[in-house]
Amino acid sequence: MKTKYILAISGNDIFSGGGLYADLATYTTHHLHGFVAVTCLTAMTDKGFEVFATDSSVFSQQLKSLKDVPFSGIKLGLLPNVEIAELALAFVKEHADIPIVLDPVLVCKENHDVEVSVLRDELLKFLPYATIITPNLVEAELLSQKSIQTLEDMKAVAKELHELGAKNVVIKGGNRFSQTVAVDVFYDGQDFHVLENPVLNHNNIGAGCTFASSIASQLLLGHPVLEAVQFSKNFVYQAILHSDQYGVKQYYDKT
């Protein structure tokens, strides 16, 4: 079978559980050749977990270096500033005919005071080009400027994000509404699908990155969007089940 190439536009996680590490591990699990354009570095400092954006000229050169690679899919993760977002958007526009998955990271989980909400307007520009977006609850609230307190709120915000341009939306509810069931909502402009899995008391670093990268991989392999989301929900469940102290252990689907 001809090798397929997939790009992650994402950041470095110093603990190697999320970001580009989760992306590449997921691509490898799907037997795809993964590339990365690195948007930022991270480190623990005396201020806590910090994000250091890649110099925009360096990031631009990364994308130019990849211009001749025949990508079949792109997944976008942490875009740390407006300059990086604008360069990434220009690249996405040049590849609008392939699956594009946007994980709109607006909050660093390790430090909820670090909000990059200034990027909201920039991220909204990606929506018409994204095959699917995968915000968590906080990110969905920031994008929509609406509060989410119930499952019905999740559905209403998913619909609003679709109306803002996203072709498909999956909002990751996690365990906000239940300590036993992780609930996500998928919306394709016509139907809502509520996806549930048991909450696991395991390390879940990189779960969101893995979820988005798995969806991108499944789309690249030709699966319908809902099927890709359902598969990826279970894929992440298994990854968390097999996680260790720092991140996700390699997990291969034997089916």
Automatic annotation (TrEMBL):
One of its GO terms (biological process) is thiamine biosynthetic process. The keyword Transferase applies. Residues 13-247 form the Pyridoxamine kinase/Phosphomethylpyrimidine kinase domain. One of its GO terms (cellular component) is cytosol. GO terms for molecular function: ATP binding; hydroxymethylpyrimidine kinase activity; metal ion binding; phosphomethylpyrimidine kinase activity; pyridoxal kinase activity. InterPro entries: HMP/HMP-P_kinase_dom, PM/HMP-P_kinase-1, Ribokinase-like. Keywords: ATP-binding, Kinase, Magnesium, Metal-binding, Nucleotide-binding, Transferase. It is an enzyme of class 2 (transferase). This is pyridoxal kinase. It comes from Streptococcus minor.
